[in-house]
Amino acid sequence: MSKKDKEVIQKLKEVGIDITKQIEKGNDPSYELPVRTLNNVFFDKKTKTIRLGDRKSTRQFLNIAHTRKFMQTMLVTSEIRKIIEQEATISIRDLYYALKHTIEGTEENSFEDQSESDPIIEDLECSLNLLREELHLAASSKGVITGKLKIKDGKDTIDLTKMGSGGWGVPSNVEPEKIEIKDLDAEYVLFIEKDAVWKRFNEDQYWKKHKCIIITGRGQPSRAERRFVQRLNKEHKLPVFALMDADPWGMYIYSVIKQGSISLSYSEEKLATPATKYIGLTVSDVETFKIPKEVTIKLNKLDVKRLNEMKKYEWFKKKEWQDEFDLMKEKAIKLELEALSKKGIRFITEKYLPQKIKSNDFLP
Amino acid sequence: MSKKDKEVIQKLKEVGIDITKQIEKGNDPSYELPVRTLNNVFFDKKTKTIRLGDRKSTRQFLNIAHTRKFMQTMLVTSEIRKIIEQEATISIRDLYYALKHTIEGTEENSFEDQSESDPIIEDLECSLNLLREELHLAASSKGVITGKLKIKDGKDTIDLTKMGSGGWGVPSNVEPEKIEIKDLDAEYVLFIEKDAVWKRFNEDQYWKKHKCIIITGRGQPSRAERRFVQRLNKEHKLPVFALMDADPWGMYIYSVIKQGSISLSYSEEKLATPATKYIGLTVSDVETFKIPKEVTIKLNKLDVKRLNEMKKYEWFKKKEWQDEFDLMKEKAIKLELEALSKKGIRFITEKYLPQKIKSNDFLP
Question: What is the largest CA-CA distance in chain B?
Fold first, then answer.
């Protein structure tokens, strides 16, 4: 068992020991946990990530409104310990099923459905300050990666320069205890929104010519892709560039990569990469690169609504972003990455991106 | 350029030559193409796949209802030829953007949106009897694979026994000219519906202990996963077992793997794997494996509606399937793969599947 696993088990044990002590003293057992509602979430200017504030709440066994959740927390804590001891990793759905049972002598189930067990996992994550991956719970992961590095994963060494047209499927758990980064010979990371565009960059071996790493989360990236990019940035000082559609959705995904999301605020310090820069697409690219207007798309009402909301976000308050949003509204257009194919199918890998990076033409 | 690419270019050229000849003769140029509407789709008992019938229609340039599509077909045919000559592969969205332009001297666009270019691609695929991958068009692919084989892809040889916890991301194009299967030492293929379950099988190195290949399409598989499994079955005679949720959706996905879908009927001979067997889950497993009833889920109205529809499908007419559907309706339950975690987190890899395979306990 790894040192980290032992530490985690110790933390889980302490949850139980603390409760037992309270019971032995004849007290109503209780535990504290951070409040995860919106009014305890804020953008931390120091870490530059979305974070959870200091507010705590207490859950008491003898408070009838808390009893069920109290019991569920004990079940989850104890099961996770067993899973780590078995050196296995399971999905949060597995955990729900493993723990679901009818309580003896009653008609009551321990959990009615997964919407009851998921928040308990989140409680544990934030009260113990651990990622769910450290609790051996696998989130879904759907991205692929290639580039100038090797991965040591268990007994296997995977050369990400030799993945053919496929790429390595990013696993759920990319923690340092599990995934070792080796022979890194890259100068930056390119985080690409769309799988089809990633395939263009991979087919053209962009990562080879430009000494970099290319990764996609196939839309909104999962935790694993974000965590892995954070590690490349924090541990190896690689700059990170995001390549997204020039539309509110692409820009929102960028903001999640950069400072995180409200729903995962309790883990964003370990998932977000505040150093990320937005390399494209932008509406100003249309002029700079003479992109024909036929391949731009008219903004719809929903886009304008989202733009107006995003303009108010603290992390989009920088002048460059406000200008970009204003320009998008003024021109009333958005633009997909594939639109660059109008200029030639390899325009994006051979002209557009090299020029943007060379001229440091990015949004903060 | 590969031999296959040269053949494809020849076919594309012939489309143009044929039209030119007609024009030179002073005729109204026209071409024939297979009808792709539902009434020309059938289940072929010989190939055991869903197929397109023999009905054809003719598209004429001077018929005002056909002119636009005629022009679009010529544009697409010519662009695909260029792409193959550039030895590139692009997405169907790229193709749409590459061809979108305002026709000189008019206000008219060649294509208004992608819903105009996609059917033209399908026309070409079925009239030339080629897969879109053979036309260098990349469909999305999202699956992962590991197991006892190696892949030769361009200059890279990828050892699928050494992928760590990740797996190799299945690329869009797995045609023999692109992807070579090497050092195959597997006795069967396990096609797993869910990514989380695939991760369980990969973590437990099931493919190593049981000499097999494990693949998931993460839900409804894409063309590439299906095509690759077909190759393993047809070229290498590997049996294929599908492991799905015991619900109408899981069973429907199985039927797509096995005999194909109506929407891709024109390509199913190259995508479907009629030899696939349904290894689980079934409602009868609940009794066989003593699965507690708390982890089963009540059928809802939509499930029952789907079951009744599926009972009528020709390919589900076999007694074993009719019995399974009847049992499901009688018990009024469905079951997810993760429910087996109730019996222990490795129950599925250590007990359930080995026993099912050993006792040949599958549905046809």
Answer: 76
Q: How far apart are the first and last CA of chain A?
A: 42
Domain B144-358: assigned CATH number:
3.40.1360.10
Contacts of B156 (CB under 8 A, 6+ apart): A162, A163, A164
B362 in helix, strand or coil? coil
Assembly ipTM: 0.94
Write out pLDDT tens, residues B96-117.
Answer: 999 999 999 999 999 999 999 9
B221-247 pLDDT per residue, tens: 999 999 999 999 999 999 999 999 999
CB B138 within 8 A of CB B173: yes
Residue B334: strand, helix, or coil: strand
Contacting residues of B for A140, CB less than 8 Å apart: 195-196
String of b and e for B288-319 (b: at least 16 CB within 10 Å)? Answer: ebebeeebbbebeeebeebbeebeeeebbeee
Please say if the pLDDT value at position A51 is more than 90: yes
Burial class (CB in 10 A: 0-12, 13-18, 19+), B98: buried
Range(s) for CATH 3.40.1360.10 in chain B? 144-358
Q: What letter would DSSP give residue A319?
A: H
CA of A150: how far to CAs of A158, A186, B164, in Å? 6, 11, 12
Is there a contact between B351 and B361 (Cβ–Cβ < 8 Å)?
no
Q: What is the largest CA-CA distance in chain A?
A: 76
CB A69 within 8 A of CB A59: yes
DSSP symbols for B213-246: EEEE-SSS--HHHHHHHHHHHHHH---EEEE--B
Tell me the three state secondary structure of residue A263.
coil
Q: What is the per-residue DSSP string for A160-189? A: TT--TTT-EEPPS---TTTEEEES---SEE
* The pLDDT of residue A1: 86
Show Cβ contacts of residue A144 under 8 Å, excluding neighbours closer than 6 positions.
A166, A167, A168, A169, A170, A195, A198, A215, A216, A218, B169
Tell me the chain A residues in contact with residue B95 when contact means C-beta distances shorter than 8 Å: 341
**Residue A139: which pLDDT band, with cuts at 50, 70 and 90?**
confident
Chain A residues touching residue B100 (CB < 8 angstroms): 294-295, 342
Q: Which of A108, A113, A109 is nearest to A95 (CA)?
A: A113
How many angstroms separate the CA atoms of A291 and A339, rounded? Answer: 8
CB of B93 within 8 Å of a chain A CB? The answer is: yes
Cβ distance of B83 and A336 shorter than 8 Å: no
CATH of domain B3-138: 1.10.10.10
B56 touches chain A (CB under 8 A): no
DSSP H or E stretch at residue B320 = helix B319-331
Residues of chain A with CATH 1.10.10.10: 3-138
B293 touches A109 (CB < 8 A)? no
Catalytic site residue from A31, A96, A97, A188 = A97
CB B89 within 8 A of CB B131: no
Q: Which of B154, B203, B338 sits opposite A93 (nearest CB)?
A: B338
